[in-house]
Amino acid sequence: MDTQTLIYLFVGATFALYIGIAIWSRAGSTKEFYVAGGGVNPVMNGMATAADWMSAASFISMAGLIAFMGYDASVYLMGWTGGYVLLALLLAPYLRKFGQFTVPDFIGTRYYSKVARVVAVICLIFISFTYIAGQMRGVGIVFSRFLDVSIFWGVIIGMGIVFIYAVLGGMKGITYTQVAQYCVLIFAYMVPAFFLSFLITGTPIPQIGLGSEVADGSGMSVLQKLDAVLVDLGFSAYTAAKKSTIDIFCITMALMVGTAGLPHVIVRFFTVPKASDARKSAGWALVFIALLYTTAPAVGAFGMLNFIDKVDETEYSQVDSFFPLYEDNGLLAFQDKNGDGVMQYRPGDAFAGKPEYTGERGPNGERMLANAPNTQNTNEVYVDKDIMVLANPEIANLPGWVVALMAAGGLAAALSTAAGLLLVISSSVSHDLLKSTFAPNISAKAELLAARLAATAAICVAGYLGIYPPGWVAQVVAFAFGLAAASLFPAIFMGIFFKGMNKEGAIAGMVSGLVFTFGYILYFKLIAPETNVAANWLFGISPEGIGVIGMLINFGVAMAVASVTARTPAEIRKLVDSIRVPRGAGDAHVH
Description:
This protein is mostly helical. The chain is built from 23 helices and 6 strands.
C-alpha cells in the first residue's frame, strides 16, 4: 500500500473515531455542554487536558522553532511546562471549588459586577481568537501537505471537522474526543522520534540520543555536530544564545503566567467531580505533556541535521522526493541564484515573503517563482519553519505508515485545541453575555442553541485567521499567552488570594493590561513591522514577552484603584475565605 493511501486510511480512521465519540457523548444539557456534567475521571481529564494543551504549536511548530532557533527556543519549553505547575498549585483547585462554568463567570461573581464579567469576556475573546489562528493555520498546513490540497482548502476541511464534534458534543464530546486525540498525537510524535534517534545516534530513546555521539565516526555529540555544521554554513552556533537575558526571562515568564490564565485550559478543571481531583488532573496532565516536551528538543536537533544533510549542496534534480512534495504546497522553495542547479542553504531569506509560483518550471525542474531574489545573501532555499516535524519522517525516508501516523497526529493536536477554544468562546457568549448579563430569563434550551450558534460563528472567524495568519504558529500562540498574562491572570490570582481587591480595581487592571499589551504587539507586528528590532523595544523586551510588563501594569493599576475606591463587600470577603479553606474542599460550591 502506497504512502498516500495509508495517509487517507489513518486520517479517515481517526476522524471517524472522533466523530463517533462526539455522537456517542452528545451534550444533552447546558452542564454537559459547558463542563461535561462535572464527572470526568482525573486521569482521563489529565489526558484530555494534555491534548487540549498540546496544540499545533506544541506538536507542529515547537520543534521547528527549536530546530531553527536553537538555544533561544528553550523559552517555549520552560514557559509552557512551568506554567502548568503554576496552574496546578495556584489556581486549579480553588477555581474548581468555586464551581463556576467559565472564567468570566468566576470574575463576574467574585467582583460582583456585570461590567467585570463583560470585560473578562472581551479579554477572553481577544486571547482565544489569537490562539485559534495558530491552530487553524496548523490544520491547513497538515491538510495541505498530506491530503494534497491548498492551505485554504485545508483550513476549510478542518473547520468542517471541528464543527461536527465541537458544536454537536460540547465539552462532553470534546473531553472524550480529546482522550482519543492524545493517544493518537503522542504515539504519532514518539514513533518518528524513536526512528530518528536510532538512525542518527544508534540510541532509540530520543531524550538520551540528544546527548549521545552521532553514529558517523566523527566522535562528536549531536549538539557539537549541529554547532559545527551551522557555523560552517554561516549561521550562529545552535547552542549559542542570541536573545538578551531580559527578553528570554520575559518570554518565559509570559508563557508561564499566560498558561495559568488561559481560559480553555482553566475550564478543564471544572469537569472533574471535586476540587482535589482538579489538582490530580493537573498532575496527570503534566506527566502526559512531559512525554512530548522532553522529546521536542531531540526532534528539532535531529530534524535540522537531516534537513541540512539532504538539502545543502544537493543538485535539485537529485534531491529526495520530500522536497518537491512540500514545494508543490508552497512550504519549501528553491531559487537558483547562481545558475549551477545546486541548492545552497545559507542565512537570510532567499527572497522577500512567502513563495509565489508562476506555474512554470525552471531549467532544473524547480517551480519558478514570481518573487524577486534577495540579492543581500546567497541563500537559495526557502523553508516554512512549521513543516519541520511533519516533514521529518519523509526527510529521513521512514516507512509510509510512519508518515501517515504523523499526519493523523498533527491533525489531532491542532483540532483538539481548536475545539477547546471554540467551546470557550461559545460558552462566554451564551452563558456569560446572555444568561448571566443581558438575558437572565433565557431558557436552558435557548442558551444551548445560542452556544452552538456562537461556536459556528467562531469557527468561521477562526478559519479566516487560519488562512491569513499574522505569523508562525508558535509565535501567534505566544502572543495569546502574553494577552492572557496581562489581562486575566492578575484578576484570577487577586480574586483568590487578595480579598481586598474590588470590582473597580479588577476592571481597571484588566483593561489597562490588555490595551497596553495588545497595542504593543499590534504596533510592532502589524503597524510598523520594520521597527521590530531589539533597539526599539521597551527595555529590550520583544512583543512575545511584553505580556509580563502588561501583567505588572495590571497589578499596579488594580492595586492603586482598589486603594481609593469602595471596600469589598463583606459577603465577597467570606466567599474568598471559603474558596481557600481546606475543609470540605471535596464539595464544589456551585452557584
